[in-house]
Amino acid sequence: xxxxxxxxxxxxxxxxxxGVTVAAAYPGTxxxxxxxxxxxxxxxxxxxxxxxxxxxxEIASGASIGGARALSAMKHVGMNVAADPIFTMxxxxxxxGLVIVTADDxxxxxxxxxxxxxxxxxxxxLGMVEPSDSQExxxxxxxxxxxxxxxxxxxxxxxxxxxxxxxxxxxxxxxxEVGVKPYERKVDKYAMLPAVARSRHLxxxxxxxxxxEYAYSCALNRTEYHDKKIGIITSGISYMHAREVFGDNxxxxxxxxxxxxxxxxxxxxxxxxxxxxxxxxGEPYLETAVRALGIDCLGKEVxxxxxxxxAQIVREAFQVGTAPDTYQVELxxxxxxxxxxxxxxxxxxxxxxxxxxxxxIAVGDIGCYALGVNPPxxxxxxxxxxxxxxxAPIGLAQALKRQQDSRKVxxxxxxxxxxxxxxxxxxxxIHAQANVCLCVLDNSITxxxxxxxxxxxxxxxxGEEVPRIELLDIIKAxxxxxxxxxxxxxxxxxxxxxxxxxxxxxxxPYLIVTKRPCALIKSVIKQNAGKHCVIDADKxxxxxxxxxxxxxxxxxxxxxxxxxxxxxCNACGLxxxxxxxxxxxxxxx
Length: 589
What we know:
Distance between the termini: 50 Å
Strand order of the largest sheet: 3-2-4-5-7-6-12
Number of strands: 22
Shape: globular
Structural class: alpha/beta
Radius of gyration: 27 Å
Strand content: 15-25%
Number of helices: 21
Oligomer: single chain
């Protein structure tokens, strides 16, 4: 049976066909859809959204040691969070196969950097495969389990945004029931104390050397000889771009097994072509391996390591002909950054915060609320990584104190990020009695990546009812007195103003928890069906106060504000609070 699948869907299918029984992940674009699609096979695979990537890999590692084939998936920066168990499992090896999927994001479509996680494979001693289309995503995942179990290695499947989200035809197969291997107590393999680690390091190096020998004849690596004047060494999506540009006017060495690389295969290919080009996205990973063999090649001198690669970039870099005739649009649309949705509860929070800019400095985090940094809300100054919204303020507050700067530092993160890594940072801030206000924007879901469940929801990934973890209980468990905690509806501007003023009046830690569900949760949409705001043009004075909240449903024309998109508006009432002339009312209630 042949179907159209995205790369993420195909990875999930490959896991199912390979006989995987345990899968865990933390959502992060472009990897989110992997576990969402694994959940479609919940009769065969136990799947779970973990609180963070480290926990997800540890769940999968425990399953692997217990004899089950296991999978963990994450976006590229998530692998930084998971690095601790990943490096240890690199030494330990596997019982049941362990596959870790990293979804890299060249071009920073939804990320804070462009790190190339191919470099992790060599660093952590992992075997690595790199698919270039959806069929290979499915097939390579299956191959990764076979290779990993054969050579006693944890395996990395490295993908990129384009491979994750592009769709192509996939030939489906049946599930291979491999069962669960018996668990055996092997302290000298899995109890990673120093003496064990030293012996396992020797073992993994031997296993990698054997895998490199296998890589020479491995079916995942292939050579395609056409015109031998140019030989292109490539992998992943870069192979597709190279084929589109050069066609049969070049020969190709396409690596599917990209760590360890077969030196023998590289040398043999390069001896059969006149010029060697290395075409790859991101860092010069393949190029470094080629040059280390004393082989001259052309690569990053002409192909940038920045941004996402495409055929046009390759064509221009290697000066290959001209692009096909395309319709050129002379007028460019002005850039339009993403904005908070209409009715988003975060909008009221950030507007309220902006009114106190002279008295505070705000640190943001990773999530929908990161969009609050844009004008006119100008919600925060700094954003580093998940959880840093609560920990960076501790150091920033110390720096301000030494400058005798009286501004208080506000840290901001969402409920899902709170469970991911914010709890540890909060504990440190309270224990240190840091002069910070920590703000948890609780919208009852992991919203940015598409409404995934988290520890604060009442259902899990498989749709089962589970106990909801109340974040307020966790906050109170630190011993912080209730007088230093405010719980407020972020769309209540007066309530927000009062909470911020209380926080500013305190020398030391203060917690603000804003509680209102995401406007796009299905039950919220149903509840608000038919409701929207209207603006009385006769009462509107054209003061533009309502425009200060940057709601996408509002527009301004002919010196008057109006609701340009009533279907998008859910009558959150924030604009009504902004209007001092009573020009805005709700309808449909």
